[in-house]
């Protein structure tokens, strides 16, 4: 049986890391696409040359021609620009919306059956626009953010409790931005919810609040340190986990920016929710009951996403 084909649209910091991870995990053959001439070709060759050393079998190709993504099973989109210190994700909207248009058209023409994972920011609005521009079914177009945000939350929690991050699970809802909603009562250490751990005296509410805030600011913390770009290792790992769930029909329960219609009282919007990812793409949106405070935070996050979607419609009439 032929190996799956994974197309990476954007061969920058995240795109290159995605290519390396996909090859090392032998998820399939990899095509790296970028408008910058030489970049995808150079990265593909460099990674291919690590194959004999690492011992993986995968064909890697770099290209500036959309025709080379033909028949891709998965497309992961990082094309666009990242933020610089002082910028918010939302400042990227105008420039990255134009990029989503060309990427959507490229996928529509050459890889209409792919499972598409968008990473480009501002995430919730860009994945919404990419689905519209590509015309692919909503369950096959999804945004990566929740796995990363939950990963950051899990990392900080494992440091606080001094336990393996494998035993820490975390739950994050809402848009990928300052309004994201880390849910403490659904986040656990070995199944024990965080509020119970506060009661047990293992941590304090103040410390927990600080961790939640650090999670919300996780992207900006890295932008501030790097100064020339944004996080790329953990974002790439997170998208690869989603791609693997699809390619191997794992039915993983992963938080991601999915098209939500009906659940959470929403009438068709991309926002971060827990989902089941399998061979059909987003197979289920898990509609959990929120308490009053959680609902208020979620509503605020949804309003922020709606504002960005309206801004997209204002810029590009074809989206209205
Ligand atoms: P970067 O290293 O700049 O790579 C972006 C690549 O896109 C560059 O190689 C560009 O040449 C290429 N590109 C630009 N325009 C086009 C186009 N029209 N078609 C094809 N390629 C194009 O950025 P990065 O890899 O660090 O980040 C990529 C995106 O991911 C940015 O928008 C970031 O803000 C975003 N990001 C999202 C998260 C989430 O959790 C959602 C995390 C980190 C970064």
TrEMBL record:
Residues 5-143 form the Lactate/malate dehydrogenase N-terminal domain. It catalyses: (S)-malate + NAD(+) = oxaloacetate + NADH + H(+). GO terms for molecular function: L-malate dehydrogenase (NAD+) activity. CDD domains: LDH-like_MDH. It comes from the Bacteria. The keyword Hydrolase does not apply. The active site is at residue 176. Keywords: NAD, Oxidoreductase, Tricarboxylic acid cycle. Its EC number is 1.1.1.37. SUPFAM superfamilies: LDH C-terminal domain-like, NAD(P)-binding Rossmann-fold domains. Residues 148-307 form the Lactate/malate dehydrogenase C-terminal domain. NAD(+) binds at residues 10-15, 34, 96, 119-121. Substrate binds at residues 83, 89, 121, 152. Catalyzes the reversible oxidation of malate to oxaloacetate. Belongs to the LDH/MDH superfamily. MDH type 3 family. This is Malate dehydrogenase. It comes from Paracoccus fistulariae. The gene is mdh.
